[in-house]
Amino acid sequence: MKAAFMFAPDDMRVIETETPVPGPGEVLLAVRAVAICASDIHIFADGHSSGTYPSGPLILGHEFSGDVAQLGADVTGFSIGDRVACEPSWHCGLCDMCRSGLANLCRNVIFPSFPDSPGAMADYIAVPASSLCKLPDSVTYEAGALVEPLGVGLHAVRLSGLQAGQDVAVLGAGAIGVATVDCCRMFGAGQIYVAEPLPGRRDFPAKLGAQVCASAAELQALFEADDSHPSLAFEASGGATAFAETMPLVRAGGTAVIIGIPEPDEQVFSARVPRRKELTVQFSRRSRDTLDDCVSMVAESKVHVADYPTRKFPLDRAPEAMQAAMAREGDTIRAIVTP
To answer: Which among 46, 246, 286, 304 counts the fewest CB atoms within 10 Å?
Structure first.
């Protein structure tokens, strides 16, 4: 099979490699769409993920969908040819976190594209059957791949305790930010405000009904003009000043949910802001028990994943797709490789 390997920072090559063999409880998936996430970009640009370096060439990509091509031993409930989406956070089911219902905090998690687990930017990938959900024919492979970032948004909104009619602010209109806006809208949020510095990314959240500004500072000025700070804000940009920008947007007694992975990792903010407001600061880690719900949400058109602005590339052009994802030009929120 062909696969796109990262050999070093800014060095990706599509080469022939052995097709994986599914083990017990696994299926071999013929990958049809894999979206490039910001975490893929971080590994590609820096050569590591949060200080963990790959021991050799690594296949990136963890937002994917495809067709079941082969069944491993003991697999039931799936047939060859089934169209499926995948939850890429593969938990053990045995540790204390898993037993407590916190599978997204599994101590033994395997995450494809995190060193040294091969990702999905390839013709095939072996995955646990338990991580899959069948895709209705009405859901495209591209939308199936975007179910993963949708799940991140859904998990964050669930953690927030959002109530119908509650105003919210969202920082960042990439795939996670847009998914969060979409889920807030589905949950019946009141006014949704979005801060997004890239002009091309402002149109889509506006189409979803959000009021979009260029920055958190613009949102802050808007809220201060009539003392209308929302009681809930989501940080989905991973920006260098993410914490410091999010907490002033929230009114006293409110909640700030941190979804983005900030760069740099060490964040500086004024403690008096959350202290004087007695804010709740909630961190959100990937997603938990969202896959089936997200597929249903997409199939029932409760969210607008199929309309997210994307740009598609064949597998042979995966290095070009990675560069396009890094450039963040136009309205594209995900570059998608289609093996």
So the answer is: 46
> What value does the mean pLDDT take over residues 306-325?
96
Query: The pTM is what?
Result: 0.96
Pairing assessment for the beta strands 2-8 and 11-16 based on DSSP bridges? antiparallel
152-283, CATH topology level: Rossmann fold (3.40.50)
Task: List, for residues 261-294, the tens digit of each pLDDT value.
Answer: 888 888 888 899 999 999 999 999 999 999 999 9
Q: What is the mean pLDDT of residues 155-177?
A: 97
According to CATH, the topology of domain 2-146+308-338 is Quinone Oxidoreductase; Chain A, domain 1 (3.90.180)
CA nearest neighbour of 210 among 258, 107, 57, 219: 219
Q: What is the 3-state secondary structure (H, E, C) of 181-208?
A: HHHHHHCCCCCEEEECCCHHHCHHHHHC
Tokens of 183: 């889920």
Nearest residue to 88 via CA among 103, 105, 110, 68? 110
Domain edges within the chain: 2-146+308-338, 152-283
